[in-house]
Specification:
Largest sheet: 6 strands, mixed
Helix content: 40-55%
Number of helices: 30
Distance between the termini: 118 Å
Number of strands: 10
Strand content: 5-15%
Radius of gyration: 49 Å
Structural class: alpha/beta
């Protein structure tokens, strides 16, 4: 049909005319809608206090009754009625369920209860709160949902607006409404966390002060000259012109790990998987860590790096030509510097180790900072001396402030200048450029090496033996001439185009702060707060709350024993190697060494006193034991035991004395054994235990009434033997004394017997036990009697067991047993007797 219409020109003209008419009608309808929307907005402004979501109560009542009619007369569904009303009455919040409920309750054409005005703030109050949020955000301050709700509550508190809110409280619904209405204005994007310390120190004033310190030092050392045409208001103007960029360097350290996963065990870098590929990807976990120190020179060259492993020593695999130290087998291939050595070859990365594998300045062998300066910086600065100095710019890490490092640098002509604390993200070239390039390339290189190991059938694991291989290419890429030059330009220390210091970071932060100030003043929701008071709190820029100037310019801190921090010395005249900072660190270090020496001396004295006391106690115990042994042999035992200082109580020996008696020197075993036997016989014996009560005969009825024995699993386990105490030893001695009284012969015979038996025994058994009885004594007779009694009991138990087996074989059935209680009773009695 369409083909026929196309062939008929008259019909096509009619169709085109109709299309134009429809387009004109649609355009007219759109204009009417816009006009109606404008009128509605005007109505909203007129009846601001009487509106319910932009709809007057009269319109709401009219729409509600119309919906009732459509549902009852027209037979429309609740959803269709709701859609029709929303199209006709823009902005109305009326649900079909509410109309259906009205009909079910039988209200019919009865007008619904008119809703009251919407409990919400007016446009002026909302704009004020939005301005306050923008003012806080301009200062990089934290703005939470709870803070906004609290601010809205402060606005309505005590005013007529509070009566509009349910319970007089602002809810989370009002917060969301505010955010929706001002979404574009407030720029509600995902924010990046900013550390409080970093926000505090990264200010234009701090950067300006730091640049001035560096410029003054470079001019003082003859590495730069002042620019006569300098314009302090021109960002492209340089205050100094640097003449020796080859004598200015920067350095920092970074962490390198062979682990390719994050703390949760996931792959750090997202891998791209093809169609049908597995979700599992090979990744190395663990493998070792190391710290790498890197640096660059203002002219674009790189300083040889230093890798620090966690170890106490290297195993032999080579020798470092510079230091003469043994190297591991896996330090090659090592990364190269852009500088050449005396042999015409590139300067290579150096290696060392310590107990933590990091930049620590307390090392038993050598300060890491001194090692780096000696073997990495000095080779990169030919002819270095106090007359031909260099400047090293670094952060204020504790290892950069050790006394050993400052002594070496002052001797070699190396001047250390510290950056402001917590500003490495903005003004440290290594963090701004070099390390960001290195870490990305290092992660990629680890993946390449791991893939090669897997494809070659080697071990599927990376270790420290692969560290140098994975570091070489990424390190040389990150510290190339191009990236080093970019890093110095971005940090504003030296721009090769202008041949001077541009102070780029200072100008960036000054512009940022000026923009924030303008935004704050334009959106000051606090009402008249001063920018400087809110931004700086009335304090000096970068000043700590607990700092001040004490004697000799030393910072006053809450704890005078605290270590020196970069916040104390970063802005001192002359830098870290200047006289003022050096004296402060020397004083602190000396004081700390004195305290450590004093503590070590006290530990040695306490150890010496303890050793002397132990030796004195041992000697006293040995002397007491010798006296006791001698007294036992000479018949004066009572006098020796009761002598003062020998024992704490008469007749009682202390543990050290008894131990010493067993180890008396210069006394043969037989004499000692006889003395101990005599000593045991001296102590009074405890009273004998009362005889056990006679056991009554057990009848069959009593045995049957007795409870059945507990199963083996429920029986109480025997208690473990407790360690022997002093009282237990005395009781044992008393028991031995009773045995000795029953002996036929006296102590003299026991002594002769002991000596003869000691001679017959081997040497390693002579001190173990003392022969307290002779052959045929009462003790042996008692042993024989106990053995015979045990054998008889064993024989009786066997016979009882056989009798029980025969009884079970002749046992009747269960019915017969129930009918014959006497038999069961006799059987139980037999069991009881046999068990007894």
């Amino acid at each position: 049909m369409i083909a026929k219409l196309k062939k008929d020109p008259q019909a096509m003209a009619v169709v085109q005319l109709r299309q134009k008419q429809l387009a004109a009608e649609a355009k007219l309808l759109q204009k009417e809608k816009k006009k109606a929307e404008k009128e509605r907005l005007k109505e909203v402004q007129k009846n601001k206090g009487r509106l319910y979501h932009g709809i007057t109560p009269e319109i709401y009542e009219k729409a509600f009754l119309e919906g009732v009619k459509l549902m009852t007369v027209g037979g429309m569904s609740r959803n269709l009625v709701e859609q029709k009303l929303q199209l006709k009455y823009r902005g109305i919040e009326l649900t079909g369920e509410a109309i259906a409920k009205h009909i079910r309750e039988g209200k019919g054409d009865t007008p619904p209860k008119r809703p009251g005005p919407e409990p919400y703030l007016d446009a002026e109050a909302l704009s004020g709160i939005a301005g306050w949020v923008k003012a806080m955000r301009s200062l990089d301050l934290l703005v939470l949902k709870e803070q906004v709700i609290s601010k809205m509550q402060d606005v309505i508190e005590g005013t007529y607006l509070q009566q509009r809110f349910k319970g007089g409280e602002v809810s989370e619904h009002h917060y969301r409404r505010l955010m929706e209405e001002h979404a574009e204005e407030l720029d509600l994007l995902t924010t990046k966390p900013l550390e409080v310390d970093r926000s505090r120190w990264c200010t234009a004033a701090n950067f300006e002060k730091h640049y001035n310190i560096v410029a003054a030092k470079l001019v003082e050392l003859g590495l730069a000259v002042a620019n006569k045409d300098y314009d302090s208001e021109d960002p492209t103007s340089c205050p100094i012109v640097i003449t020796r960029p080859d004598r200015i360097m920067s350095m920092d350290e970074t962490h390198a790990t062979m682990d390719m996963t994050d703390p949760n065990g996931n792959l750090k870098t997202v891998a791209v998987a093809g169609e049908g590929a597995s979700a599992e990807i090979l990744a190395n976990k663990g493998g070792g860590d190391a710290t790498i120190i890197g640096g660059s020179i203002a002219d674009g060259n790189s300083v040889p790096g230093l890798t620090i492993f966690k170890s106490t020593s290297f195993f032999a695999g080579g020798v470092d030509p510079t230091t003469g130290r043994a190297l591991p087998n896996w330090t090659e291939p090592s990364a190269s510097s852009t500088l050449l050595g005396d042999d015409g070859q590139p300067l290579k990365m150096r290696f060392t180790c310590n107990k933590v594998g990091g930049y620590i300045w307390k090392d038993e062998k050598e300060d890491v900072g001194v090692f780096y300066m000696k073997h990495c910086v000095v080779p990169a600065m030919p002819g270095l001396s106090p007359d031909n100095p260099c400047v090293v710019i670094m952060d204020g890490y504790g290892g950069h402030l050790s006394l050993a490092l400052l002594d070496y640098c002052r001797e070699m002509g190396i001047h250390i200048l510290l950056r402001p604390p917590h500003t490495s993200n903005a003004i440290q070239g290594e963090d701004v450029k070099n390390f960001s390039v290195f870490k990305l390339a290092f992660q990629a290189e680890k993946g390449k090496v791991l893939n090669r190991l897997v494809l070659n059938g080697s071990k599927h694991r990376l270790g420290l033996q692969h560290l140098s291989e994975c570091v070489k290419a990424p390190w040389e890429k990150a510290f190339s001439m191009k990236r080093n030059t970019e890093a110095w330009m971005l940090t504003g220390y030296y721009d090769a185009e202008y041949k001077g210091m541009t102070r780029k970071v200072y100008w960036e932060y000054k512009k940022k702060e000026e923009r924030a100030r303008q935004q704050f003043e334009a959106n000051n929701g606090e009402g008249g707060l001063n920018w400087d008071e809110l931004r700086l709190g009335g304090k000096k820029v970068g000043a700590a709350d607990d700092e001040g100037d004490g004697e000799d310019g030393e910072p006053v801190r809450r704890n005078q024993n605290n270590a020196i921090h970069s916040t104390d010395v970063w802005d001192m005249e002359g830098g870290a190697t200047g006289d003022r900072c050096y004296q402060l660190i020397h004083k602190k270090t000396t004081k700390k060494r004195e305290v450590e020496a004093e503590n070590e001396k006290k530990r040695e004295e306490n150890q010496k006193k303890k050793s002397e006391a132990q030796e004195q106690e041992r000697q006293l115990a040995e002397e007491a034991a010798q006296k006791l042994v001698a007294a036992a042999g000479g018949g004066e035992l009572s006098t020796a035991v009761h002598a003062p200082g020998v024992a704490e109580r008469p007749g009682v020996l202390t543990a050290p004395e008894m131990k010493a008696m067993a180890n008396v020197r210069n006394l043969d075993a037989s004499t000692k054994t006889a003395a101990l036997a005599s000593l045991r016989s001296f102590f009074p014996a405890p009273p004998p235990p009362p005889p056990p009560p006679p056991q009554a005969a057990v009848t069959r009825a009593a045995a049957a009434a007795a409870p059945a024995p507990a199963p083996a699993a429920q029986r109480r386990k025997p208690k473990k033997k407790e360690p022997q105490t002093k009282e237990g030893i005395l009781a044992e001695i008393a028991r031995l004394k009773l045995i000795a009284e029953d002996m036929d012969d006296g102590p003299a015979h026991a002594q002769s017997t002991a000596s003869s038996s000691a001679k017959k025994r081997p040497a390693h058994q002579r001190r173990e036990t003392a022969p307290l009885s002779s052959k045929g004594s009462a003790q042996d007779k008692k042993k024989k009697k106990s053995k015979a009694a045990a054998a008889a009991a064993k024989t009786k138990a066997k016979s009882t067991k056989k009798q029980m087996k025969s009884t079970r074989a002749q046992r009747p059935t269960a019915a017969a047993q129930s009918a014959s209680p006497g038999h069961a009773e006799g059987l139980t009695t037999t069991k009881k007797r046999s068990r007894k």
